[in-house]
Amino acid sequence: MKKNLFIAFEGIDGSGKSTQVEHLSAKLKNAGHQVYTTCEPTNSPIGSIIRDIFNHKLEGDHRTIAGLFVADRLDHLLNKTNGILKKLEEGFTVITDRYYFSSYAYHGVHMSLDWVIEANSLSADLLRPDMNIYIDMPPEICMNRLSKGRNSLELYETIENLNQVRGKYSEAFNRLKNTEKIFITDGNRLPELIANDIWAEISHIR
Asked: Which of 66, 103, 178, 206 is deepest in the core (most CB within 10 A)?
C-alpha cells in the first residue's frame, strides 16, 4: 500500500461516514500509518459561519454558502498550522469527512453544477484524493438516523433535499469518473462489512 494517503469520505447526511472514518483510521494506524482525521466544514472562522447557517443561527443564500465552502476548503488545504497539505508534508495519512464532491452534490442541487466544479477547481488542482469513498444510502434510512436524539435538523437535512443530493452525487461521479478515483460502497449493511470492503480497496492503492 502507498504511504501518506489522502482519503475523502462522501455521502449524504446520516450515511455513516463518521463511523467509517473511525474504522479506516484504526486499520491504517495498525498498518503503521500516522493518521490525521479532519472534516468539512472546518472549525476555522469560515467554517464556524457555515455551521451557524446550517443551525439556523444565521441566514445565508445557497450561493453564499457555496462561496463560503470554497474559501473554507482552500484554508483547509493551505493553512500553515494544520492544513491538509501541511499534514501530508509532515508524513501523515489524511482522512477527511467531506471534500469537494460534497459541494458538487449539495450545491449542485441549487445552482449550476458547472459553476460549482469551476469554483472548486483550485482545490482540485492543489490536491485530488487518492480515493473518494462514497457511502451510498437510501435517504429514508438516513433521515430516520438523523431524527433520533436530535432536537432540530440542519438546513439541508430534509428527505426532498437528500434525494436530490444523492442524484447529484451520481451525476458528478459519472461526469468526473475519468479524472477522479472513486469507490462506491453500499452503506445499508453492517458497519464492519462496509469497513472491510473499504479496506480491501484502500489496500490496493499504489
From this structure: 103
CATH number for 25: 3.40.50.300
pLDDT over 70, % of the chain: 99
**148-157 long-range contacts, Cβ below 8 Å, gap at least 24?**
152/55, 152/56, 154/13, 154/54, 154/55, 155/53, 155/54, 155/55, 155/56, 156/13, 156/54, 156/106, 157/13, 157/14
**50 touches 61 (CB < 8 A):** no
Q: Are 69 and 41 in contact (CB under 8 A)?
A: yes
pLDDT in tens, 164-206: 999 999 999 999 999 999 999 999 999 999 999 999 999 989 7
- The whole domain housing 88 covers 6-202
Q: How confident is the model at residue 1 (pLDDT cuts 50, 70, 90)?
A: confident
The answer to the question of residue 61 being in a domain is yes
Task: Give yes or no for a contact between 42 and 75, defined as CB atoms under 8 angstroms apart.
Answer: yes
Distance CA 63, CA 69 (A): 10
pTM: 0.95
Spell out where the chain has E strands.
6-10, 35-39, 93-97, 131-136, 182-186
